[in-house]
Each structure stands twice: as structure tokens, then as C-alpha cells.
Amino acid sequence: MRHSQTLIPTLKEVPADAEIASHKLLVRAGYIRQTAAGVYSFLPLGNRVLKHVEEIIREEMDRVGAVEMLMPALQPADLWKQSGRWYNFGAELMRVNDRHERQFALGATHEEVITKLIGDEVKSYKRLPLTVYQIQSKFRDEKRPRFGLLRGREFTMKDAYSFHQSTESLDDMYDKMFRAYSNIFRRCGLDFRAVIADSGAMGGKDTHEFMVLSEIGEDTIAYSDHSSFAANIEMAPVNNEYLQPNEEAKPLELIDTPGRYTMHDVAQYLDQPLANGMKSLLFKVDEEFVLVLSRGDHDINEVKLKNAYQATNVEMATEAEINEVLGANAGSVGPVHIDQIDVIADHAVRSIMNGYCGANQDDKHFINVCPDRDFKVNAYYDLRFIQEGDPSPDGQGTIQFARGIEVGHVFKLGNIYADKIGAGFLNEQGKQETMTMGCYGIGVSRTLAAIVEQFHDEDGIVWPKAIAPYDLHLLTMNPKHQDQFELSESLYQQLQQKRFSVLYDDRKERPGVKFADSDLIGLPVRLTVGKRAQEGYVECKVRATGEQFDIHISELDEKLTALLESSH
């Protein structure tokens, strides 16, 4: 493609609203432009990268037997009401009415639509298992769109859905998809981890997220320093074995703690370690109040709390609700003398002896508190966030943290949607059964941004060969020089005939502008036709390493093939 015939509006200045490298560079290098907050146009270069990622996805989906289709973005509200997600998906679901006041959703995901479609069309076990996928725009009304393509209101996604007559069949496809996703992100050149995850609004269980390691990632990954264990911090289990203190229980005592309302303040006032305190938080779990306890140096994990109760909604009680239910402000609540609501605790609380906690009276705390002696715990669960330095749940090594960008997610949905929307089939005995489902998503545009986060330098983007918009960037230093012009034109034709994709900078611009734009755009190899054109020599630069050398055009084909094959 000739630069003069395409749209590559590069910028020298960093966009004012861009906070991270991928947002800055994709805008500056002319890959994307913002149309509205969280809504972007993919310009020719950006669209080519997007298509290359999609090609890799299609190849891996074909390999596991998934077939491509396309579903509507506009979805009737009735389907979402059948699944229950019209009410509990949240404000991110974009809802619209047509001229007849019929309600629709702009597709944030397609479980409802595909379940209805397959339920209507597949009636026999003979047509199962079946896996379909699509690559399509999705819509979510983000409260605060930011980070360019990483958190947008419209984005490109690959979503796949598998339908089975047994959990064994689902397990088999889940494993295939897991491997396919690993292949996809590996082929994109990414440094990633597959981590145990929470299913969130999707439902189901047994899920994994694929996380690209990056300091700007919005998720925290907990991983072992001696094994392959990795999990989203929300789902990382914690070892529930704690050493019991070797000391005598003391009498419970009520004391004054004026103006001390945080665990740190109380610990300092009592001159006791945080680990000997009991943090007491009041939650509403599906509208029922529950007092949740953790050790003072631990934090309650709301995802674990939700899963412990198999709840739909979990939220912190308001200050007014805390006063109404427990009779004190949030900094003075505790479990002693509580019998009107459930009291549950993290496993670590069981090991506290002669601890301290709020007394449900403002400015007062109990000391010498012993669980199960001084208050009743309805149940103990793993409720806390794992911490760096904790033993790895698999018994190998200790936990370390890293930041990650979620680019893919695989779910075992079971029959949650098939039951609600009605996707059944006749088994071998002619009896009706409910289908079992899996769901598998990749954020295609997020993947593009994540690649830039990992592959860039101070001069611009450094694309891996597999997804670069073009293989080669051909530059003419001075098109007015006949020998340079003729060699450039000849090379442009010859290289394309050799099946290289080429971006040919034929603009009448200064060499410095062309070099700067070339580094910014970030194609794997740059060829510069300059003062040695008459001798048949061009300058070759490898973008990833910065290596530069002159090469005769007679050796160019072989050298370029080797360079591109070795590119990351």
C-alpha cells in the first residue's frame, strides 16, 4: 500500500486524555481515532491489525471444530428477562426502545440469543456436541471509559458457545478451548497467564481468565513462585490451617476506645498487633444482613462471600443500616451478644485467642475476646483475600502478585441458560434432557491494545510479525532522485510479488519525518532507499532490535525471509 493513498494521520503530540502507552501510541501512530468517549474508529492500519488477530482466532477455532456465524447486536428484552439478567446485569447493559416502545438491549454478550436459537433448531442428541462462534461488536455502558481500547463502550469480541448432552462432553471442549486460547495468545506474541477466575454476571463455574502481564492491568494475579498455580486475586483460595496460640483464655473485658474507629487506630491504642483484632463488617447478602469477621490484618473478599452463600447480590451495609441493626457506628461493631443475624468468619478468626473487637457501642471495644466462647459463629469459610507471602494453595512455594489485562475468559455454564430459556433435546432413549453449555470469549480489540502495552519503546510501537499491519516499511529518502525513485518503485512491485506485505512511504516528506513515522508505526522491518540506490544497496533496520545494515537487492529476498521468520 502506498502511504500517499491511505489514511495514516500520525501525531507528534501525545493526546491529552491518553493515560497509558497503548492509548497514546495507537492514536499518535494513526491506528485509531475517538468518535465519542469509549467509542473508536479503526483506521486502515488499526483495521489490518484487528483482522490479523481475527485470522489467528479463526484458525484456532476451526482447529477445535467451532463454526463461525453472526448474531444480531440488537436483542429483545424478553430474552434477557427470561434469563433474569435484564434486572441483575446492571447499568452497563445498554437498553433502548423502538418506536413502538418495545424494549431491546444492545448486545453486551449473546448467551440468551444463542441459547434460544440452538434450543429452537437442535432437538436431538445426534446433533450434539455443537460449537459456534462469532466476531462482532459488543456494547457496554461503562461509567468511566478510559485507557483507550482497554475499557470502551463499543468493542470487538469473539464469543463462542458450545452445547452438549453431558458434562464429560463439556469438559472435553473446555480443555480444547483452553488450549486454543493459549495458542492464540502465544501466536500473538504475548506474555500471559491462565488464571482461576470468577464467573461474575455470566453465571456457571469452573472458569479461567487469560491475563496479559502488564503494570497497567486492572486485575491482580496471585501466582506461586515455585509452581504453575495462578488465580485472579478474587478467586485465589487461602490455606485454612492456622497455628493455635499457646496461651490461657482471659476474662472478657469492655474498655473505652475514644475516637478509635479503624483497626489500625485501635491496634495502636491497645498496643496489640493487627492480627489479634477482629474486623467486623455488616453486609447485605440478597437483602439479608450478615456480620462477616476477618482477622484485623486481612480484608474480606466479596466474591468469596457471594460464592459462600451462592448469592446473587452482595453489598456493604450503609452507615444508617449499621446503626439500625447493630446500634453503633461502623468502627465500633463486633460479634459479641449478636443473635438477631448470622455471624460468619474467615478461617483465620478461629485461631485468635484473647483478641479485641468492637462492642456495638460507640467508642467501646472488648478485649480478651475468644471466638466460640464469647460469641457464636454460624459458619467458617475462606473469606479473605490472599496476600503476598502466603503459602501457595497447591502447597508449592509462596504467593507473589502481578498485574494483568484480561483478554480472554472461558466458562463452564452448565445448564443455567438452557433451563431458563428452554434448550432441550431428546436423548438416546427418546427422553427430554436439558443441554449443557460452555461459553468462551476473547476481547479482540483489548488484545490489540494489550499487545502494544507489551511491545513498544520510547519511539513507538514494535509489532510482533504475526499481527503487524504490514511486514515491511519501504521508505524513499528523496523521490526526486531518479535512481531512488526507480529502485523504490521496482522493489515495491517485486516485494509484493514475493508475498511480502509492504507499506511504501512515497510521500514528498523530509527524511526525518519518514524515519520518525516509521518507528512510531512499528512495522517489523524497514527498508530505506537512499544514496546507495545506484549501486543497488538499501538500508535495512529491524524494528525490535534496532539492528541496521546495508544489503544488496540481490540478497534481499533471502535475508528478509530469515528476518521475518525469526521475528517475535
TrEMBL record:
<feature type="domain" description="Aminoacyl-transfer RNA synthetases class-II family profile">
    <location>
        <begin position="47"/>
        <end position="464"/>
    </location>
</feature>
<protein>
    <recommendedName>
        <fullName>Proline--tRNA ligase</fullName>
        <ecNumber>6.1.1.15</ecNumber>
    </recommendedName>
</protein>
<dbReference type="InterPro" id="IPR045864">
    <property type="entry name" value="aa-tRNA-synth_II/BPL/LPL"/>
</dbReference>
<comment type="similarity">
    <text>Belongs to the class-II aminoacyl-tRNA synthetase family. ProS type 1 subfamily.</text>
</comment>
<dbReference type="InterPro" id="IPR006195">
    <property type="entry name" value="aa-tRNA-synth_II"/>
</dbReference>
<dbReference type="GO" id="GO:0016740">
    <property type="term" value="F:transferase activity"/>
</dbReference>
<keyword id="KW-0067">ATP-binding</keyword>
<dbReference type="InterPro" id="IPR033730">
    <property type="entry name" value="ProRS_core_prok"/>
</dbReference>
<dbReference type="InterPro" id="IPR004154">
    <property type="entry name" value="Anticodon-bd"/>
</dbReference>
<dbReference type="InterPro" id="IPR002316">
    <property type="entry name" value="Pro-tRNA-ligase_IIa"/>
</dbReference>
<keyword id="KW-0648">Protein biosynthesis</keyword>
<dbReference type="GO" id="GO:0140096">
    <property type="term" value="F:catalytic activity, acting on a protein"/>
</dbReference>
<dbReference type="GO" id="GO:0002161">
    <property type="term" value="F:aminoacyl-tRNA deacylase activity"/>
</dbReference>
<dbReference type="InterPro" id="IPR004500">
    <property type="entry name" value="Pro-tRNA-synth_IIa_bac-type"/>
</dbReference>
<dbReference type="InterPro" id="IPR036621">
    <property type="entry name" value="Anticodon-bd_dom_sf"/>
</dbReference>
<dbReference type="InterPro" id="IPR050062">
    <property type="entry name" value="Pro-tRNA_synthetase"/>
</dbReference>
<dbReference type="GO" id="GO:0005829">
    <property type="term" value="C:cytosol"/>
</dbReference>
<keyword id="KW-0963">Cytoplasm</keyword>
<dbReference type="InterPro" id="IPR007214">
    <property type="entry name" value="YbaK/aa-tRNA-synth-assoc-dom"/>
</dbReference>
<dbReference type="InterPro" id="IPR036754">
    <property type="entry name" value="YbaK/aa-tRNA-synt-asso_dom_sf"/>
</dbReference>
<keyword id="KW-0030">Aminoacyl-tRNA synthetase</keyword>
<comment type="function">
    <text>Catalyzes the attachment of proline to tRNA(Pro) in a two-step reaction: proline is first activated by ATP to form Pro-AMP and then transferred to the acceptor end of tRNA(Pro). As ProRS can inadvertently accommodate and process non-cognate amino acids such as alanine and cysteine, to avoid such errors it has two additional distinct editing activities against alanine. One activity is designated as 'pretransfer' editing and involves the tRNA(Pro)-independent hydrolysis of activated Ala-AMP.</text>
</comment>
<dbReference type="GO" id="GO:0004827">
    <property type="term" value="F:proline-tRNA ligase activity"/>
</dbReference>
<comment type="subunit">
    <text>Homodimer.</text>
</comment>
<dbReference type="InterPro" id="IPR002314">
    <property type="entry name" value="aa-tRNA-synt_IIb"/>
</dbReference>
<dbReference type="Pfam" id="PF04073">
    <property type="entry name" value="tRNA_edit"/>
</dbReference>
<dbReference type="InterPro" id="IPR044140">
    <property type="entry name" value="ProRS_anticodon_short"/>
</dbReference>
<dbReference type="Pfam" id="PF00587">
    <property type="entry name" value="tRNA-synt_2b"/>
</dbReference>
<dbReference type="InterPro" id="IPR023717">
    <property type="entry name" value="Pro-tRNA-Synthase_IIa_type1"/>
</dbReference>
<dbReference type="Pfam" id="PF03129">
    <property type="entry name" value="HGTP_anticodon"/>
</dbReference>
<keyword id="KW-0547">Nucleotide-binding</keyword>
<keyword id="KW-0436">Ligase</keyword>
<dbReference type="GO" id="GO:0006433">
    <property type="term" value="P:prolyl-tRNA aminoacylation"/>
</dbReference>
<dbReference type="GO" id="GO:0005524">
    <property type="term" value="F:ATP binding"/>
</dbReference>
